[in-house]
Amino acid sequence: MKGLFRSISLIVTLILAIGLMTSMAVIYISPVRIHVLALLGFLFPALWLINLLVLIAHIARKSPRLIIPLIVLALSWNQWNNVFRLSGEKAPEDMSTPVKVMSFNTRMFDYYEWSGMEETPESIYDFIREENPDIICFQEYFTSNKKEGFHPNQTKARFRALGYRHIEYRFDNGRGTGYGIATFSKFPIINKGSLPFGESRNMAIFSDVNIDGKVIRIFNNHLESIGFKENDFNVIDSLKFEMDEQQRQGIKEIVHKMSRAFLQRSSQAEILSRHIENSPYPVVVCGDFNDTPISYVYRTMRGNLKDAFRESGKGFGGTYNGRLPSLRIDYIFHASSFNSYDFKRHKTDFSDHYPISTIIELEAENQTAREP
Known about the structure:
The protein is an alpha+beta fold. Helix content is about 35%, strand content about 25%.
């Protein structure tokens, strides 16, 4: 009986270890090659914690099998730091050229009142006034001349009153509404451009910002979303061990949507990474990537940049504020020559995303453009 228990213990330990290593491998494999594998990235945090518990159990039993979870936990430690941080680092008082950067998917400024809150746009303006970022990257930026408070000129005037110069690229449906992304800066914007993703409604923009003689390029990105509808959430909420035909069809549709989004995001990330690498200036990369830190998209977008959450974040840092478990899908990356401090996830209910911000310290020496 004891031998059977040991065999089962070994098998379970190996399965969990292999599962963790497989989930970690998704960062290296494009969904174009194996798109279903990308789903395993969502399981990484749970698998890592389960393997930690297995390690503790083997240590308590003084089992030599502890070497298995110990090895896989050590190999995945770097990826775990993308997911969880114990404590953040506050900005020093003697910073050289501090710049506060914020990224926020506004969910159209709650135009359709999904939040159930009253006067959400006014609350967002008050929030921005209080936080006072130097640069803001908005995704799902929205204007409409059909509703008070959303008119393009009103919106621009409100932000101008807060001290922001304005850059905006948006899709216009020709019926008085605009949807897209926008970057606001208190520093001069000396150049700008857009990076559309073919037929997708998602896109990216860049803004070259002159900060006291130092030019940096801000990339504001909104990558493809899964596009879950109310019915998809209902299917997830109603899942049981035994599924009926309707639930099975619902799961197939959900997997199809996720696979399609994985493919589109990977292509978009590859396009953006080339632009980031070829930037003539040091970069700050912000946005809603719609993917987790254990993903091909995250690794491709980050490249050799620093992740502000890793530098000074705390906890799991989930930025999704919806019906699914909170995942970190919004990011601020920056050039390795910069330092960042005081990363914050602002727990507001304005949107289905939490705003994030960090304070970036630019390098002391003057920035000069590299040859493209």
